[in-house]
Structure formats: structure tokens, C-alpha cells
User: What shape does this take?
Amino acid sequence: MNFFRDIWNSIVRRDSLSTDKGKSELVFLNVWLHIHPAKVKKEHLRFRHTFYLGFITFFLFIILVTTGIALMCYYRPYPSQAYQDMKDLQFVVFLGPFIRGMHRWAAHLMVICVFLHMCRVFFTGSYKKPRQFNWVIGVLLLLLTLGLSFTGYLLPWDQLAYWAITVGTNIGSYAPLVGGQLRELLLGGHTVGQAALIRFYVLHVAVLPGLVGLLTIVHFWRVRKDGGLSRPLWKLERKPVEELVTIGAPAEPAALRVSSAAQSKTYGLMEVVTGKPIFETVSPDEEEDTVFAYPYAFLRESIALMGTVVGLMVISILYHAPLEELANPAKTPNPAKAPWYFLGLQELVSHSALVGGVVAPALMVLALLAVPYIDRNPSRRLRERKWALWLFSAFVVANLVLIIIGTFFRGPGWAFIPPWVHVVAGAE
Amino acid sequence: MNRRSFLGWGAAGFAALCSSVAVSFGAVLRYLVPDVFYEPPQTFKVGKPADFAYGPPTFLADEKIYVFRDREKGFSVASAVCTHLGCTVNHFQSDDRFHCPCHGSIFAANGAVVHGPAPKPLPWFEVTLARDGQLSVDKDKVVPSTYHLMV
Assistant: This one.
């Protein structure tokens, strides 16, 4: 059996997992796992610190890529074929409705999880130094997620798709100076037609997922380089003196000289380079607070992954993705509504296309991007950042209220109609 | 090579590099703008004058226009595309106004904005009589709402 053992040993070159060396090597000899540290802080594994929202978002993206590739095997991005292919997926393709449902609901969930993840990072103050730029990348990923949802929306070529994209691209055309050209570039023409469909398809299956993949790698890489996740708030409460563990030269060089080996361990990057050496000083307390990524972190990630997949499967079995009638450029459905995550925007637009559709969202995005640079308060403790918390909460509540109004309180002709009032659909 | 000529050549080379990157970027952007649009033509014939009744306007779905025929004044053609965000407006005979289903804009019979987010009135298009006796509409020629064609 030496033959098979040689093959196995050529693939897996680590020591046995029963040893600490083997557990470390599992992580750092493996290209897919080495984004993890070999040992992680116990506090980082706590569910109530992160709710695993970043992981769940990433898993949803993986599910979206997988189901998306499956859908690509049947879908042709041409106005006369697209809707037909959707009908095929709905009625004649084995597991078609299930795969499409997984894709649709994962997309909705991803928007929700990205948003919740952003809220978690804000409320725990995890965008503060040295993590400012990773927050910016996170906001870009949020925008790309919305872009993926938007471009995906057109592809079924049903009434909802057609009119959501007509309204959406017209909002863009209100942008000063470049608006009109921007719309023409996106649509490849002047109306939502064949050229627009192929462009949205290319953006949806190649350009935007590629960008999300690249930025995700940077996002994860920077989490590692910033010393892992931020410290949970309850740890800050207990040890008010100690702040973030950062990689870089020790803040006080004196500490290196004073602290004896009994009090702390200093890890250095051993390399012959000029400039300050890179040190990470870890106290024995913290050393005891760490566990091996295998199995503790991997087990939790696997549970999060399985929970996400199973939850999504159950939703997809219970609810099929909706498909309206074939796109009809002559007849606008009444009311014509964008997907729910854009209904806040549509509510703003119903008051003014320029202010509500361009100025307000542009300011919102700029404010989000600038959050870590505007909020220069170094403290992460909740009671010391009342202003930031109030402002961000107001931002979240305003968005939710606008979405709820747009979703439940707007009827035909965008009239304000409470959901408990019955309106005959299609009445003119 | 002395310092002056090194810096001179270096600056020239850097400028050349930057401009070629800019030109390439512009060319790619230009590549994405089609030279031929496979879209319905802006000028089209809509039928003989006798095809159109007096009274309520005729909605032409493919062209997204309303054709009005008035006994005294003759033909006029209004756009059916809301100036707000491009939804198709519906003409209601009950109040002789255009209603947009998307965000509730309302336009008067002459296209003027009566209510709601639409920033501009509905445009009216030039309508002429072609040689073959059909009405011809040109969406590129916007005319005042008082423009009429008497046949």
C-alpha cells in the first residue's frame, strides 16, 4: 500500500492533524486556507461579535456564482429568446425553478447581509484606524452588489425587468453633464432593447462578479494584515488601556526593552531589509486566548456555510422566483416598481428625479465612503461615540422607512395607499 | 547623456506613455458607443388620415405616440413617454389628461405638467403628409403644442 500512501503524501504534505505542527501546516501550506491565521483569537470566533455576516455574505456570493453558471447553460441574452428560456427554466428544465429560486433569493439575501454586515462594522467601530480603507472597499463591494442585482434584474425580460431598468437608467440620465451619455453607454442605444440586454448580461456574468471577486480578496487580505477582526466591544470594556493589536513597529519602543520574556512574546518578520522591523507583541494572556483555526474556526465556518445553503434551499423549495408576463414596451404596469432594495430610491425619485435620484444617493455614497475619515474619534466604546451612532442609526432608519413606504404604501399612479386598503389592480 | 537631456527625454517619454494610455482608454470607451443603432427609426409613417377617428386620441404602442384628430384644427402628435423616467403615460378620456403610472405625474391635454415629478411637458412631434398620402411623424422635430396639420 506504499504506492497509494506515496500519492496521498505527495498531495497532503503536512504532519498529522493530531499534532499542533500539523494543525498549523494545514492552514499555511494550503493555498485556499492560508487566508486564515494558524491560530485565531477565541473572541473572534464569538457569534455575538460578528454574527458571521461577512462569511455568510461570502458564501452567498459563492452560491450565486455556482447557480449563475448553471443558469447560463440555458439562458440566451436575446430579447426574443430570453423570456422563452426563463419559461423553459420554469417548466421544462429539471430543477430549473429550484436553481433559479436559489439564485434569486441568494441575491436578495446578499443585499440584506451586506447591509447588516456594514451596520455591524459601524456599530462596533471596526472601521477605525488601521481599518479605514477596508471600510471603503466594503462600501465599494456594497455598490457592486447593488450593481449585480440591478443588471441581473433585466435578464428575465419580463415586465418587471423591462420597466425597472427603464426607470433605473433614466434616473442615471439625470446626472449632470455625463448623464445622457452614461445611459447611452450602458444601454448601447436609446431604449431598453437588444443592445441593452447583451450589455447588462456581460456586466452581470463577467465584469461585476470579477470585480467583486478581486475586491473580496483585498478585503479579506486586509482583515488579516490588520491583525484579524476588531476586538469585541465587551473586551474593550474590561481592559480599557489595551487598544487594537496592530502589525507594525511597537508604538512605544521602550516597551520592548522593559518587557521581559515572561511578560510578553515578540514576533518579528526576519528578513534582511532596511527600515523599521515589523514586530507584533503579544502578551501571554492573549497567547492563551488563541486556539488553532483547525478545527475551531473551520467548524464554525462550515456550520455557517451549511446553515446558509440549507436555509436558502428551504426558501427556494417553498417559494419560487417570480416571473411576470413578457416585457411590453407599450404598456407600463401600474404601479411600476423597482426591486425592493431600490424602492427607497424610487420613493425619493417620485419627489424629484435630480435631487432624489442623483444628488441624494450620490451624497449618501460619498458620506459612506468618507465615514472613517470624517469620524476621527479614536474610541470604539459605544458611550464615547454618541454622535456617530445617532447619525448612522438615522441613516439606516431613513433608508428602511423609504423602502417600507415604497414597498407597502404606494399604489397605482404612485398614490399613497396604505397596505390595508384594497385597490383593484389594473384599474385605469 | 547629461542630466538635462536625461530629464528632458524622461519627461517626454512619461508624457508619451500617459497620452497613449489616455488615448487607449478613450478608444475603448468609443468602441462601446455603437455607430449603428438597430432601433426603430425616428421618422415613420402611421397611416392614412382617414384611419384616424375624431375625438379620443389614437395610441400607437410601437411608436409610443398619441395621434390627435380635431375637427377644426386637424392632426397633432404627442409623445407618450413620460419626461420624468420614461414610463408610458395613459390618456384618460374622463379628465382629458395624461397619467403616468410610475410616479404619478399628470399632464394636461396640451402636454403641460399639471402635477408631480415630471420636469418638462410632453413634447409634440411634427406631423406631415407624405407623397403617398400617409401621415408621417418625425420624432426628431419637436413642435409647439399649437402645431396642427390640416388635411
